[in-house]
Amino acid sequence: MLSRGAVRAHLLAARLAGAVATSREVSLRSYRLFGAGDPRVLLGLEPQRRWGEGELVDLMARKCGVSGDPGYRVGPDAIDPERTLAALDAFAERVGEAAARRVPVLFGTGHPHRLLDFYAELAGAMSAAGCEVLTPARGKRVDITTRFGVRTYNLDYVRGVALMREPGARGGASDPGVHSHSPLPIRVVLGAAAEGGGPLPGLVVGDHGWVVGAGQLGFEAIGPADVDDPAMFVGEAEGRVAVAVPLDDGVRSDYYRPLTRYVLNRACLSR
């Protein structure tokens, strides 16, 4: 069992927290786009009010530990590992409660290259605990607007985790799926589940549009988010996202393995 101190040390060593790769310039650009209502950073959220850049800097300072100085414009951004640990504890509590109640769960990621294994291990543990891991709309086509125009992807599941693939992709280690922040896949998945008369999730676990889109529709949703993803933290502040865990979401996939162990231990689950 990993101690809290060991996980804190790992967060800093792997740059999941502390000084992270996301720069202040990138974060501030996301805050400005969010304030302007750009759907690329809203991730499916419909904010209850307009958020200015200064308000977002203040919110992200409280939620993530970034600098609250509005004059800090250039340089590395940072995440307070204590805030990450506190959010991981809340995340684990939600996972444990869902497992104890044996509610249906849905996992989805727009970062399959990095976070697929993290979610897949949780999905396996929750399935072993008696939760149904939902996989509706497999193979469904989804049209997503990208910077290159509208692209059509296919919805797939790997080890219980939803993701998007290029048409004709066979999957495998060399092709884990495409990077997407869109909320459209979760809307398609939930719509297919409702139309088919199957169970709806009591908990949605994932990132970006999967979590924010589910939360906006009233589902309990939890997941990690980087400092340039204000929608997750605004969603949490406004009561749509249940737990947003501040951490770098772009490091090597094996660096998330200790976090999986920590969450499973805190949730009283095992693999």
TrEMBL record:
A family per Pfam: Phosphatase
Domain of life the protein comes from: Bacteria
Protein name as annotated: Phosphatase
